[in-house]
């Protein structure tokens, strides 16, 4: 319902979700193309280009795509009630979201809000996948909505029932009581390549049936907080109101659901993200069949590898998912996965980037078997695991003075029994002072070093011994608050 803002503290700007979509940045020449509506140009080939000059290609017939499939794109209006002053609301009673800055000062959006219940309205987009009224949109578009109204291309309006929504993937399924409706064609995101043409249709800022076009900028993007979705990144203009609308390939097939933008201002700045349609259909099938969605869980926290981390773990190149922590009692823990392992394959699928792993796990079901190929201590290890339900819950050093570690620029000391208990750690050393290479790498006073290149650190002496045996780089597993992360540090 409301436009959702996802502020990313680990990024320079915010990734903004919900109510987003394409805006007013089309090229009229695409709409004046002389092709007939039946002549939709094929997508750009994604195979390797042979040597020699690269010839120009004809742009897709966007006009034909809009004329044929635009009628299957719908506008969505929602209404609900929120408490004034509640978390997520500002002093004016509006959702605390950068998108709503656009509406401040307009009729109905100005002045101080009354205390108590405040009516909240939202807008988004969606598209029809079943002639009997089955519609896909974003979960955040209908979140907390008491009433959902779907507006068709021919201006008919229907009250919609929310069959179910899944915040983990940001997918929702609606149903309206109608028959013989126009529907979209569904495509295969796997066939998309970076550089391929794409088109979005939606209702940015309430401007119905707006079309914007661009190219695929990247695939398989992992965003913080969206671990189950390997996003399609595009440069298609997406703005508030487009969230939940379709992303078409050059053949007119829907390959994604427009969901989020990356922005410093709350408006479109050239980077937008879409949920691959195969992920959305996986969610839709569970909602239609069971009324809810179950996600599988492996139970690891992972991070991306860079070249320095790859060197530290003796990998030829930075690929795979580096495990920074394992949840106690999880499927991963029972399979023997350890912090410092690099997961290279999952059920035969190569893990190129860390974001590949959660997307593969999320497409499974609780109880599914998972075969893992793991890189550990310079060799490959084969492990087997049984995935669980994502919602399932799952010795003393003396306190001496800090000792400097010259190679790293650290002064460390053993953890006290109280500190171990508070941090829920069996071992580790506390960093009291940091300079040089470690400081430049981002290590800070108060961090706890848990492991070096995957080997647990139990004492200051052991840390010294481990560092004396390493080469040019070392990967420190540190705990900062409740977060564990590997930090690559050059030894110099």
Features:
single chain; mainly beta; Thrombin, subunit H; Pdz3 Domain; 3 domains; seven-stranded antiparallel β-sheet; elongated; disordered N terminus
Provide a compact summary of the structure.
The chain is mainly beta and 492 residues long. The chain has 3 domains: 1-43 and 59-292, Thrombin, subunit H, CATH 2.40.10.120; 296-389, PDZ domain (Pdz3 Domain), CATH 2.30.42.10; 403-490, Pdz3 Domain, CATH 2.30.42.10. β14 and β15 form a beta hairpin.
Folded structure, characterized:
The chain folds into 3 domains: about 1-45 and about 60-290, Beta Barrel (Thrombin, subunit H); about 295-390, Pdz3 Domain; about 405-490, Pdz3 Domain (Roll), CATH 2.30.42. It has about 500 residues and is mainly β. It has 10 helices and 31 strands. It is about 15% helix and about 35% strand. The N and C termini lie far apart (about 55 Å).
Give the helices and strands, then pairings.
Blueprint: E1 5-6, E2 14-17, H1 28-31, H2 62-69, E3 73-83, E4 117-130, E5 134-137, H3 139-142, E6 147-151, E7 157-159, E8 161-166, E9 171-175, E10 185-186, E11 197-202, E12 210-223, E13 226-234, E14 246-249, E15 253-263, E16 272-276, H4 277-290, E17 296-297, E18 300-303, H5 307-312, E19 321-326, H6 331-335, E20 342-346, E21 349-350, H7 356-362, E22 369-376, E23 379-386, E24 388-389, E25 403-405, E26 410-414, H8 417-423, E27 429-434, H9 436-441, E28 448-452, E29 455-456, H10 460-468, E30 473-480, E31 483-490
Parallel strand pairs: 10-15
Antiparallel strand pairs: 1-2, 2-15, 3-4, 3-6, 4-5, 5-9, 6-7, 8-9, 11-12, 11-14, 12-13, 13-16, 14-15, 15-16, 17-24, 18-19, 19-20, 20-21, 20-22, 22-23, 25-26, 26-27, 27-28, 28-29, 28-30, 30-31
